[in-house]
Amino acid sequence: MLSKKQLTQSIEYLQSQGFEAPEVGIVLGTGLGKLVDSIENQKVAHYNQIPSFPLATVEFHSGKLIYGDLGGKKVVVMQGRFHLYEGYDFIDITYPVRVMHGLGIKNLLVSNAAGAVNLDMKKGDLMLIDDHINLQGGSPLAFKGVSEFGERFTDMSAPYDKEMNDKLKSLATSQNISLKEGVYASVVGPQLETRAEYRMLKILGADAVGMSTVPEIIVANHLNLPVSAISVLTDECDPDNLEPVDIADIIAIAGTAEPKMVALFKGLIELI
Hints:
Elements: H1 4-16, E1 24-28, E2 40-46, E3 64-70, E4 73-79, H2 90-103, E5 107-116, E6 126-134, H3 162-174, E7 179-186, H4 195-204, E8 208-210, H5 214-222, E9 227-236, H6 247-271
Parallel strand pairs: 1-4, 1-5, 5-9, 6-7, 7-8
Antiparallel strand pairs: 2-3, 3-4, 5-8, 6-9
Helix pairs in contact: 1-2, 2-5, 3-6
Keywords: Glycosyltransferase, Transferase
Function: The purine nucleoside phosphorylases catalyze the phosphorolytic breakdown of the N-glycosidic bond in the beta-(deoxy)ribonucleoside molecules, with the formation of the corresponding free purine bases and pentose-1-phosphate.
InterPro entries: Nucleoside_phosphorylase_d, Nucleoside_phosphorylase_sf, Pur_Nuc_Pase_Ino/Guo-sp, Purine_phosphorylase
């Protein structure tokens, strides 16, 4: 159960550690932790030190909040997110977004590693998320007392901020970075999809599929927090030529594509 007392304890602890008035929050996905190397004057809070904070259990998610300067702004970065497949509920998964909002962020940037369902997209490509399909079987707003934190019936007609997305597209063009655009489907995992499931996702209109992001986007909209998200496409989900996927390969491909995502996020932070 979400409580304002818990949120206050988390926020006050981080403020006591020097996390003062960040302007931009960032959530980093699987294999996408290098952005923190660009942050200056860092202050670090490990999740296990923050009151009421969940703990990261995935071995390639490091589990810490990092505060500092990036692109001329104060930022707070979530290095290591939470997933349904780890046994967390939707409130746990989205708790850090509420904490970052409580610290003062005005914009949220989200990244993830995803599989390309649209076969016009290739592994190593970046996809700007324009819309999403929630296939996780629940909502981070479906709890008693949600109205204390925002509008229960949150509008999702345009969940991703058009102004920030337009800036990202312009930055990609000016930096000669190929940036696709499409629909992200979020599933539970942790198993990858079957051939039949990839065919279903294509019929539904998904361009990419992953196991995160959508709950965080829903809560950002609940908080009236402008949000943009980029998927790093790490594998091609061709049901007619499907090959086994190795998680190590996914991490490696995310790492090779990551500098492009970092460049776009840094450019956007300078502009907003």
